[in-house]
Amino acid sequence: MNVMFNKRRLRLLMCGLLFAPLLSAGDYSAVIAKVKPGVVALGNYQALRQPAVIFVGTAFVVADGRHAITNAHNIPPFLDPAKKESLVVVVPDEQRREVRMATVIAEDQAHDLALLKFSDAPLTPLSLGDDAGVKEGREFLISGFPIGSALGYHVVTHQAMVSAITPAVQPVYNSKQLNPRLLKRMATQYKVFQLDAIAYPGNSGSPLYDPETGKVVGVLNSVFVKETKENALQSPSGISYAIPVQFVKALLREAGLDAE
């Protein structure tokens, strides 16, 4: 009787070990539902053009719900007033898209960040976390528009592990790799989060956030960081990077806004 009982316990224990990863796998549905209303698309708008909105990247709502953070490189370098072009955020909706006029009110070129203010009623702002708690091996979520309007204006979420915390600019061993932009960035060295997620063009500006709390710990960045870290590569990788949220908080404080 005891032998049979012990064998049964052993089988149950083995089943528990086999299925433990499945049972402990995260259900992120609640936190994604919490974050999605604060994620918007960024675009160049011209009413008579088809399509009227040319997608340029992702942004997320902060502070009082009337401001958003994105990458500075997402901002169109020139908007033609003669053609009535303007910067807009696109609020995704199941029924229809809502387009809101936006203006850049502050930039941090050193960390490739831009602060926008948009029109109409406030949206749901995302809470900002503490990037000091980000460690290698931790899992986070990214919500944004990975391939822009090609997939429709629907917020898409991916999972990413922090595979390394590294300098934003790698040392160069050949003077031919140097250029004025790279030299300027080398003068303001800082750490970035290297992620194991594939970098999609439209995800630049997406929030990197804690899967339990939804608090933002970084801003996804592809172009800016890859230009410096992968300057020596003929074929840049699909690795993603994120700018720590501490620089977002600093930009908000400079603008006199809530940095939490």
TrEMBL record:
- The reply on keyword Hydrolase is yes
A single GO molecular function term of this UniProt record: peptidase activity
Lineage: superkingdom: Bacteria
Q: Does the keyword Protease apply?
A: yes
Q: Which GO terms describe its biological process?
A: proteolysis
Indicate the transmembrane segments per the record.
none
Keywords, sorted A to Z: Hydrolase, Protease, Signal
Which Pfam families is this protein grouped with?
Trypsin_2
Stretch forming the signal peptide? 1-25
By sequence similarity, the record places it as follows: Belongs to the peptidase S1C family.
**What is the recorded name of this protein?**
Peptidase S1
Lineage, top ranks: Bacteria, Pseudomonadati, Pseudomonadota, Gammaproteobacteria, Candidatus Tenderiales
